[in-house]
Amino acid sequence: MNRRNGSKLAGDHDSLQMDSKATEQAPNMEQKNGEIMDSEEVENGKSEPIVPLAMDGDVTAPDGGWGWVVLVATILVLALTLAFPSCMGIFYTDLQTEFQASNQETSWVPSIMTSVLHAGGPFCSVLVERFGCRATVMLGGVLSGLGMAASSFTHTIAELYVTAGVITGLGFCFSFQPAVTILGHYFVRRRAFANALSSTGTALGLCTLPLLGNYLHTELGWRGSFLVLGAVLLNCCVCGAVMRPLGGPRHRGQTLINHRPLQLEEKKLKGRMRALWAGLMAAVRHHMAFDLLRNNLRYRVYAVGITWMMLGFVVPLIYLVPYATAHDMEQSQAALLLSILGIVNIVVRPPIGLLFSLPWFKGCHTYVFSAALLVNGLSNSICCIDASFPVLLAYVVTYGLSMSVVGSLMFTVLMDTLDMSRFPAALGLLAIMESVTLLIGPPLAGILVDRTGEYFYVFFACSATVASSAVYLMVSFYWLDRRDRRALKGQQVPPQVPPPKPASGNNLVPQCQYRSVPTEGDKDKASDSETGDITCL
């Protein structure tokens, strides 16, 4: 009896030691089958693993249902984020006058904002994998709102670089990229159509934000306008709240009280910090997706072309209002030009998305995208003709039509070049590359204006930059498609021709001749069979 009790106590002691070891290893995050599990959350009742959307291959995208709600939320997020830096031109002259800054110094504000919007991609991917798209979008809404609100209290242009540039731009990044990522998981069969509809969010922002900004500027000045716009940007939190994961809501446990000793808690905290730092470094290396840039030639070509394109793609939107007002146009008319550009995008993008989602255009997205980009680049030269309202109206209509196709197919072409599970990492690395040219584009244009005193040189330079990137993409992808077709033909094995059957059923020995002897029933056919059955191998 004592032996049994002793063995039972020993077994209980061993089990307690195993539980203690498991408890000490609790801070470590384990990754298994594409799921990240925090053992601390498991013990506290949060037994549901954190499933990153980019690695979720078990859940089928609904292509509808709640996806339409996510699509509407994505449209609003893109309207509040991607279109916002282009509308800073409404306040360009006021900022220049308030801080006594040159064109180069003033242009750094939208430049830093746009650059940080794209450069924060890898950090955004880490947050998406750890906390999900919903929480990341809501965090971005808080940051962007606080950044614009703080910008209304700045006293130097350098402070504006930090508040409106870095903080607001980082909030835009945390809201924009997870929204695009979760939309790609909700739609597969209708992905081209969903991306085209979501890209109307940028057009919606271009249509409404200039009018709103001009009204606020007239009533409240630029400081009051920034404060109100900060409150408007908080709506990204509402949009993020509806972006629920495809795996469904997480079920939280009921045990929330921790009864561990204090020393064990200290060890757990140290282990958690080490695991968090190691996980952060590994996640940054993983989400930079340098392996795609090294091994995927199509992605490399696309990334280089888009990076070069961004040097002059958004600059005309920033300088359109200053260019028009510098030639004695009313600021309300100049803001109306941006709104017309947004209206054209809203009207054109949905049918463009429906059209290019048809099977006829399968495999042609890249060439349509490159052709539209070429037209977009050449349209900037229209501004060099004159600065009157009819000429600029023709410019924004042409620019808006081509921009609609470019915006509708930009993410579709990227998704066509790689597997969807690597899309967040590919988008993060592409955003880092874009951020460099987005950062230096507007200041270079500002230097050009300061030295020449004319704005039309900016539009001419943007025309050459965007058109050259379009030609590069078109020629490169044509060469890649031609190479792949040749490789496919080389891998095709010609069909095997079956060997001819011998005229006789007898086994033949090489280099032997024989004559079949007809039977009694074959005497009538003896002459024919003698001729036909002589075989030489």
From TrEMBL:
<dbReference type="InterPro" id="IPR011701">
    <property type="entry name" value="MFS"/>
</dbReference>
<feature type="transmembrane region" description="Helical">
    <location>
        <begin position="65"/>
        <end position="92"/>
    </location>
</feature>
<dbReference type="InterPro" id="IPR020846">
    <property type="entry name" value="MFS_dom"/>
</dbReference>
<dbReference type="InterPro" id="IPR050327">
    <property type="entry name" value="Proton-linked_MCT"/>
</dbReference>
<dbReference type="Pfam" id="PF07690">
    <property type="entry name" value="MFS_1"/>
</dbReference>
<dbReference type="GO" id="GO:0008028">
    <property type="term" value="F:monocarboxylic acid transmembrane transporter activity"/>
</dbReference>
<feature type="transmembrane region" description="Helical">
    <location>
        <begin position="192"/>
        <end position="212"/>
    </location>
</feature>
<feature type="transmembrane region" description="Helical">
    <location>
        <begin position="392"/>
        <end position="414"/>
    </location>
</feature>
<feature type="transmembrane region" description="Helical">
    <location>
        <begin position="160"/>
        <end position="180"/>
    </location>
</feature>
<feature type="region of interest" description="Disordered">
    <location>
        <begin position="1"/>
        <end position="45"/>
    </location>
</feature>
<feature type="transmembrane region" description="Helical">
    <location>
        <begin position="334"/>
        <end position="352"/>
    </location>
</feature>
<feature type="transmembrane region" description="Helical">
    <location>
        <begin position="108"/>
        <end position="128"/>
    </location>
</feature>
<feature type="region of interest" description="Disordered">
    <location>
        <begin position="490"/>
        <end position="537"/>
    </location>
</feature>
<keyword id="KW-0472">Membrane</keyword>
<protein>
    <recommendedName>
        <fullName>Major facilitator superfamily (MFS) profile domain-containing protein</fullName>
    </recommendedName>
</protein>
<keyword id="KW-1133">Transmembrane helix</keyword>
<dbReference type="InterPro" id="IPR036259">
    <property type="entry name" value="MFS_trans_sf"/>
</dbReference>
<feature type="transmembrane region" description="Helical">
    <location>
        <begin position="455"/>
        <end position="480"/>
    </location>
</feature>
<feature type="transmembrane region" description="Helical">
    <location>
        <begin position="299"/>
        <end position="322"/>
    </location>
</feature>
<feature type="transmembrane region" description="Helical">
    <location>
        <begin position="426"/>
        <end position="449"/>
    </location>
</feature>
<feature type="transmembrane region" description="Helical">
    <location>
        <begin position="224"/>
        <end position="243"/>
    </location>
</feature>
<feature type="compositionally biased region" description="Polar residues">
    <location>
        <begin position="504"/>
        <end position="516"/>
    </location>
</feature>
<feature type="compositionally biased region" description="Polar residues">
    <location>
        <begin position="17"/>
        <end position="31"/>
    </location>
</feature>
<dbReference type="GO" id="GO:0016323">
    <property type="term" value="C:basolateral plasma membrane"/>
</dbReference>
<feature type="transmembrane region" description="Helical">
    <location>
        <begin position="135"/>
        <end position="154"/>
    </location>
</feature>
<keyword id="KW-0812">Transmembrane</keyword>
<feature type="domain" description="Major facilitator superfamily (MFS) profile">
    <location>
        <begin position="69"/>
        <end position="479"/>
    </location>
</feature>
